[in-house]
């Protein structure tokens, strides 16, 4: 549905300049990442907001038609754009206060009313498709998540008790 409507992105690979066409969604059961990007390097984050909103609305509409819904409280988004930092000689992520600080992406919530989605900074990590990540690629958040899971498991094993008939030989 989304690809047929023109959503998604295309890019050239850095090494051999091959065209990569990516479908706009990565899905697993009820967890989906919708990707929308500009069509040229000359488009800024501000330029693609209309297509990002259209992609979000289309996806939410498609889910609704099939009897499902998107919970805005469990949803979030990043608006990713870069600016050249001449002082350090490298590209850096634009922060929310530099990139449409008042822009709100909205979708129909579970009640059918339009609701805003949480917008995150490029270094704010969130769990998606079972992995805690952020565009800025700091692995610390995912490691902390894994430590938390491990500690919970250790506590459950430590405080649990197995009878000899609980174990299958």
TrEMBL record:
Domain of life: Eukaryota
Protein name as it appears in the record: Uncharacterized protein
Organism expressing this protein natively: Cylindrotheca closterium
């Amino acid at each position: 549905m989304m690809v047929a409507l023109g959503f998604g992105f295309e890019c050239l690979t850095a090494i051999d300049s091959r065209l990569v066409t990516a479908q706009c969604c990565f899905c697993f059961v009820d967890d989906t990442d919708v990707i929308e990007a500009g069509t040229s390097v000359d488009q800024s984050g501000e330029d693609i907001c209309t297509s990002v909103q259209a992609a979000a609305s289309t996806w939410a509409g498609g889910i609704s038609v099939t009897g499902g819904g998107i919970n805005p409280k469990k949803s979030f988004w990043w608006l990713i754009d870069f600016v050249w930092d001449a002082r350090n000689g490298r590209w850096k992520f634009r922060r929310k206060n530099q990139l449409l600080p008042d822009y709100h992406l909205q979708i129909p919530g579970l009640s059918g009313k339009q609701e805003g989605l949480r917008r995150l900074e490029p270094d704010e990590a969130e769990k998606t498709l079972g992995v805690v990540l952020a565009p800025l690629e700091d692995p610390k958040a995912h490691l902390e998540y894994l430590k938390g899971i491990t500690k919970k498991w250790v506590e459950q094993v430590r405080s649990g008790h197995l009878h000899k008939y609980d174990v299958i030989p």
